[in-house]
């Protein structure tokens, strides 16, 4: 009897041991090793957000996969592929696609979750990534409204520059300086059009703060709803009636692509105009788009082919020179940040991934998260790393010091690509090209926002030239 009991005990232990092999810690079976590495995303290939996807993530990621067709894990080179699920620019579809991708990551047929196409989608996806314990590596989309909830999203890494990270602060100070130099006694005023979703509301809110900080009065605002074909005319007529110096269109390409043409047709020529996303794509300055009317229009931009920090200038030139992308499809805002994020993802995957003794690739999402939040990387932007602010935005300076941008990112917090790694924030169309512009002293180390990486490639033109008849 004693021997029989011992035999049963050993059998139970062995059975439990076998059952625990492959357990993912959440009660399920771990991912099956794979012969390839798959980057998956819910993207807006169709619908009103399609221009953002087709001009932003798609060409840049296609280029990335051409240049980096493999990742080497424990000496084994694995081919890298993308897996896109079209959400049609519909939020509920994106959430369903995200569930599908997370399930595939747990199964081992997908490995990395790239972010969706816009801010509202990014913010809606973040809780799913946390619940599913899958790293969310974003490309498009900002995270201003996530600042108060960074501790809720343990798996999100946001890579793009956005409203207060650190576009609007730079724009407000730049415009105030340029306007004062032009006419020190004439107050500067602005009218704001904004996409009627999380993206536009974030930009409206941050413009209200930073314009106020610089003494720029806001004459009014207009909500631009997707599908509203009269939005441009309504915004421009309101700004014209108010006599606003600055026109802002913080909206999607369906609205901003036509802003210059409508403004010219309605006889409104502001001293400065900033639009985005849309104006940051090379196609905006093409003859069949804004053409000569792009001259002087401003946008959000991180780098151009003149930028010397890191290798980002060479990257932008390579995108412009690639026959499959070209100048028209080069994104001067997103591409530098997206490329840097993929470089960070590749390094992390190669360091923490496993080839399972030749059985195939797997990656532990917790180990991936911890590598991203604790390491500094060399990317096209130079030294690059994720941070999270340790304090709320200062209500007087509206900025953070270096000491307040925590690195390593604490366990249980989202990571934001440090805005002090950005090589630019604001671009302006000058002679058919997007130049990086900035205020006096920016990038020199004595700037109040400590933007030491910022590279100005041309002086701002203010007021912008009149529309070309």
Structure, described:
The structure is a single chain. By secondary structure, this protein is of the alpha/beta class. The chain folds into 2 domains: 37-163 and 332-421, Response regulator (Rossmann fold, 3-Layer(aba) Sandwich), CATH 3.40.50.2300; 167-306 and 422-437, 3-Layer(aba) Sandwich (Rossmann fold). It has helices spanning 2-20, 50-55, 57-67, 91-107, 119-132, 167-182, 198-213, 231-242, 253-256, 259-265, 312-321, 334-352, 365-374, and strands spanning 37-43, 70-73, 76-86, 112-114, 136-137, 156-158, 189-195, 217-224, 246-250, 272-275, 298-300, 377-379, 382-384, 386-389, 405-406, 415-417, 426-430, 433-437. A 9-stranded mixed β-sheet has the order 2-3-1-4-5-6-16-14-15. A 4-stranded parallel β-sheet has the order 8-7-9-10, with helices on both faces. Strands 11-17-18 form a 3-stranded antiparallel β-sheet. A hairpin with a 2-residue loop joins strand 2 (70-73) and strand 3 (76-86). Helix 4 (91-107) runs parallel beside helix 5 and helix 12 packs across helix 13. The termini are far apart.
Question: How many helices in DSSP terms?
Answer: 13
Query: How many strand elements?
Result: 18
Helix content: 25-40%
Q: In terms of quaternary structure, what is this? A: single chain
Judged by helices, strands and strand pairing, the structural class is alpha/beta
Largest sheet: 9 strands, mixed
| Domain module count | 2
* Order of adjacent strands in the largest pleated sheet: 2-3-1-4-5-6-16-14-15
Mean pLDDT: 92
CATH topology of the largest domain: Rossmann fold
Strand content: 15-25%
| Rg (CA only) | 24 Å
Cα distance spanning the termini:
102 Å
CATH C-level category of the largest domain:
Alpha Beta
Question: What is the molecular shape?
Answer: globular
Would you identify the CATH architecture of the largest domain? 3-Layer(aba) Sandwich
User: What is the H level of CATH, i.e. the homologous superfamily of the largest domain?
Assistant: Response regulator
Poorly predicted ranges: 1-23
